[in-house]
Amino acid sequence: MCITDMTAVELAAAIREGKATAVEALQAVLTRIEEKDKELNCYVTVDKEGALKQAVQVQEKIEKGELTGPLAGVPVAIKDNLCTEGILTTCASRILRNFVPTYTAKAVVNLQKAGAVILGKTNMDEFAMGSTTETSAYGVTRNPHNTEHVPGGSSGGSAAAVAAGECFYALGSDTGGSIRQPASYCGAVGMKPTYGTVSRYGLIAYGSSLDQIGPLTKDVRDCATVLEVIASHDDKDSTSLVRQDTDFTKALVEDVKGMRIGIPNDYLGEGLDEEVREAVLQAARVLEAQGAVVERFDLSLVEYAIPAYYTIAAAEASSNLERFDGIKYGYRTEEYTGLHHMYKKSRSEGFGEEVKRRIMLGSFVLSSGYYDAYYLKALRVKALIKKAFDEAFARYDMILGPVAPTTAPRLGESLADPIRMYLGDIYTIAVNLAGLPGISVPCGQDSKGLPIGMQLIGDCFQEKKLLRAAYTYEQYEKK
Amino acid sequence: MANIISDETIEYVGILAKLELSEAEKEQAKKDMGRMLDYIDKLGELDTTGVEPMSHVFPVQNVFREDVVTNGDAREQMLSNAPQEKDGMFMVPRTF
Predict the structure, then answer these.
(1) What is the domain-level CATH number for residue B31?
(2) CA geometry: angle at A243 spanning A240 and A245, to 5°?
(3) How far is CA B30 from CA A440, B3, B9, in A?
(4) Is A121 one of the catalytic residues?
(5) CA of B15 to nearest chain A CA: how many angstroms apart?
(6) Which of A329, A330, A418 sits opposite B32 (nearest CB)?
(7) A chain contacts of residue B86, beta-carbon cutoff 8 Å
């Protein structure tokens, strides 16, 4: 077996057993990056030297028995909106083109403690605003399954790197589907945990009340394993939760007997591609054949999630991105007359189009006279959406549906019409509004050979149910 | 309702957002924002009377910790990210 074809857990086991070393694994993956990344552009930064140093150190610790965890020695790719001390962190924006953080994000620190080897930083939509990785200031990332298509976004670099074997697993962030959708487009597993499960410390904020960090992996076992390592309470994130049930690998059991699964009729309606629909329903039939009780139901309010989301996310973004002022870090324009002109010019030259669009919208919905009508209205609708989910989870253990209405669009097709692009988030976005966990699991390909993803959505804190169902499905498909 | 974003609104939002837009960008922003707001107006179809705005899903509030310094001195590294620095401080344009 080629080393880059191994899952993260398989590789770590091979390293523990002395069949491979962390350095060999790193070299194999660096070779793969050299072969493929010119075309795919999954990475903004590859930290070859740093990774080699880490791999040598980690290998020593494994041999001494100091590192015994299930991810020790495995190279990982990190989305470029997670701060990494000493490694360029750009958010795929021109405004942060030379920003080198002085500290590392908590989720990444947790990985390092577990013996991960940080390969580099993956491409994304600028400040995670986009669904295709085409708004990056550092060029588009291409889908490894068909390079004329996008990898999805915003964690497109992470998803493509996993799919292309340019890393063994990756971290992404999910504000409205940014882990689950690219995972679906690239044929990877991706999970957005319950809000507050993974510390956001060191994640460069987009929509703070919606952002969560999560894994993108080759299979469900890797997903549970990575989530178990990165989940932790953190004093440095005031929205971080104390959870005792983060032993997610315990959920890797092949058993869905009696599990109640609801498929929202609203998720199968207009706009859904026929091949995607059929693949997702086929996956549901597999779970049903394994003993799950599958039913259709009406979730309601689905069409209100996107307008509520874009109001709230833009509002939070306009506030969060005020920090980019050309003073403490990042880009400063060359010529200006006075302080305020410097702010405005630096920001206007540093931010891309989509980011400016959302900052403008966010500033507007928060402005006096419009705050109640737009921002508060959206927060009230969010409460209604949460209630609709509560009612669904009173009847079902989980909700099953597609991740996205179509498979990966062709490059260049999405950005011309922002609202159409936003509509592609229809099945993922409500999950962030309600703080729920959601997982994307590959469930086939369309006639063009592009991957299709099934999404499972759980009630807050019910990641284990999702992992169990996803694992059961995946094991069945392997047979 | 159809949202007609006026030139004044775009100027005002530009000030709030601290963005300097070219004439062409302003025209585009007017169109984009108008379309987006028309779309967001869909929320008006829902009766939200008596519904409390929900900013966070979990009622985690007032999270305090002891006011103790835990981070080390990273002044040099932090300043090395600044576009301009002088004598250990961030340098800004004249403000008066």
Answers:
(1) 1.10.20
(2) 145
(3) 37, 10, 9
(4) no
(5) 8
(6) A418
(7) none
**Which chain B positions have a beta carbon within 8 Å of A418's beta carbon?**
32, 36
Calculate how close chain A gets to B47, using CA atoms only, in Å.
9
Task: pLDDT band for B3, please (50, 70, 90 cuts).
Answer: confident
Residue spans per domain, chain A: 3-251
Chain A positions touching B78 (Cβ under 8 A) are: 102, 328
Task: Determine whether the interchain pair B20/A348 forms a contact, defined as Cβ–Cβ distance below 8 Å.
Answer: yes
User: Number of structural domains, chain B?
Assistant: 1
A154 as an active site residue: the answer is yes
To which H or E segment does residue A171 belong? strand A169-174
Specify if B52 maps to a domain.
Answer: no
Range A337-355 average pLDDT: 96
CB contact under 8 A, A364 and B33: yes
Structural domain including B29 reads: 7-45
State the pLDDT at residue B1. 45
Question: Is residue B69 situated within a structural domain?
Answer: no
Residue B60 lies in a domain: no
Active-site entry in A178, A232, A240, A318: A178
Helix ranges (H only) for A236-338 are: 274-289, 302-320
Q: DSSP for A333-376?
A: -S--SSHHHHHHHHHHHHS-HHHHHHHHHHHHHHSTTTIIIIII
Enter the CATH code of domain A3-251: 3.90.1300.10
pLDDT tens digits for range A99-125: 999 999 999 999 999 999 999 999 999
